[in-house]
Amino acid sequence: MKSTTVSIIGGIALMTMGMLLLLDRLGVVESGVFAPLITFAGLGSVFVALFILRRGNWWAAIPGSVLLGLAAVIAATSFTEGAAVGSVLFLFMAAGFGAVYLRERTFWWALIPCGVMSVLALVAVLPAELQGAPAATVLFLGLAATFGLLSVVPVRLPGGTEESRTGRMRWPLIPAAVLGMLGVTFAFQSAVQIISGDVAFLAAVILAGLALLAYGYHARNIGQRSVHGH
């Protein structure tokens, strides 16, 4: 029954593509745009059907998401205008890897490409004036958040039941810290580029005043405690 369902989906996709090519041959419609769209969408639907119909076919979510993402990119570039079209493919790929983790909780590794693709989708929609250091800030902080999330998400380790082998990993905190430091570095660089020299000087003066105020208040409290202590 499962193979029959997949065959039906593949047959419908082939028939649709054949009809579009026939109509194009007869001069009824222009299939130059629709043929690639239908092809990628049909093949992607076959892989999605394989993923849904059998639990062991977790791998089918990856090519299925890529093919459906390509179909979505073709549709977006053909019928809409915008610079954020590239993010559509990244979002579909992130959804594919996310589906792999939801299907098999032992495949914690799928969260890494899921997070990476999500961050790339976010970077792709940034405006032109935020390219360079600001985009690098978003990239590295997003990757740091990906590994940070991996350290707190319960994962099911192989070789046991869900109750006895579910835990949290600590090693992702290391790449999260390194990537976070890089992100903060680029964030400071972005702030230097965006903030003018006069504004930066005034901000430094205000911060210095706050530091002196905090130091004086702290020293006063220490003096009062020492007096009452005697």
Proportion of helical residues: over 70%
Give the number of DSSP strands.
Answer: 2
Determine the mean pLDDT: 78
Number of helices: 8
- The share of residues in extended strands comes to under 5%
Q: Nearest-angstrom radius of gyration?
A: 27 Å
Class inferred from helices and paired strands? mainly alpha
Name the helix and strand elements from N-terminus to C-terminus, one letter apiece: HHHHHHEEHH
End-to-end C-alpha gap: 89 Å
Question: Low-confidence stretches at least 5 residues in length (pLDDT < 50)?
Answer: none
Shape: elongated
Give a short account of the largest sheet: 2 strands, antiparallel
Q: Your description of this structure?
A:
It is a single chain. This protein has a two-stranded antiparallel sheet. The chain has helices at 2-25, 31-53, 61-79, 86-103, 111-124, 133-152, 173-194, 197-229, and strands at residues 155-156, 166-167. The protein starts with a helix and ends with a helix. It has eight helices and two strands, in the order ααααααββαα.
In short:
With 230 residues, this protein is an all-alpha fold. Helices cover 75% and strands 2% of the residues.
Q: Which short descriptors sum up this protein?
A:
230 residues; mainly alpha; two-stranded antiparallel sheet; 2 strands; 75% helix
Outline the fold blueprint.
Blueprint: H1 2-25, H2 31-53, H3 61-79, H4 86-103, H5 111-124, H6 133-152, E1 155-156, E2 166-167, H7 173-194, H8 197-229
Antiparallel strand pairs: 1-2
Helix pairs in contact: 1-2, 2-3, 3-4, 4-5, 5-6, 6-7
